[in-house]
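pinging the channel bc i need a second pair of eyes. not urgent but kinda urgent?? the chain im working w is below, pasted from the shared doc
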Amino acid sequence: MEVDANLSSREMLYKAKLDWEVSKIPSQRPKSYGNQETIRFFKGFFEAGEADIETIGGLDASRILWGLARLNEDFTLKGEDEVQGYVLLASRDEGREKVEIQFLTVRKSCHNMLKIASNAKPFVKNIFRRTFKPTFPFLNQKSQKFDEEMVQKASAIMNQGREAISVFVDDAQNLVNKKVEEPIAYMFDVFQPDTDVSTIGENEWPELADNKTRLAIEAFSKAPGQELESSRNTAWGLLNAVTYIIDHQLGSNQDSRLRQAWFGPNAKLKKRALDLALEL
């Protein structure tokens, strides 16, 4: 692996691991620079948007490369329930030419994540990705720096994410103020919408509940953060019971949980849980 002075030792360790994993994936184009260029793009994008990078990692045997940064757009709900705003960048295509953008909130008490809808573009081109040529020097030697136009573009996208999180604060406050008596009907509506629980007795639901529904009902009272005033018998507590089991309990391992929560069917479950909680 070529050592790059523009990367920190920590980033070089990530690159070494990722390049080794990705090198095992068949392709018509060399991969030796793809992850390094993508990491550098993540850094440039975060810096242009004044976001503080916290983590860079890989999922699915490093097929997915991702970076997470703090937006410094935070808020606090009743009972010192702290919620922090983040931006997620991810490269899932083999050529590393497209970068996905998501804005998330992370609840500090339990590290539950929730994707926040925004008006920002969901994708951006990885302008640092160089094309391979059959002749020396083999890689196009284009500049790998953000010009003023790209800086403004990244900054605008980040600000749209911050605005979306700022708007979400009102929704979160409304959920905190919505009192609920029990979680059973809501959890069935999230995970098993075709099951009619309106006619069953209080002790009959375990026979109808699947594993996800049971876990979420238990999490409503037992998950970390559910003891806070903001969550006790509230719609906010219902939503966070769902996000908790998705982020911490479902799936065979942490890699699987993150992939499903960020890019898979569990991302849709979180969106459904939020929509249903707001309708209560």
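so Residues 20 and 32 are 9 Å apart (CA to CA). and The chain has a mean pLDDT of 86. — does that match what u expected or am i reading it wrong
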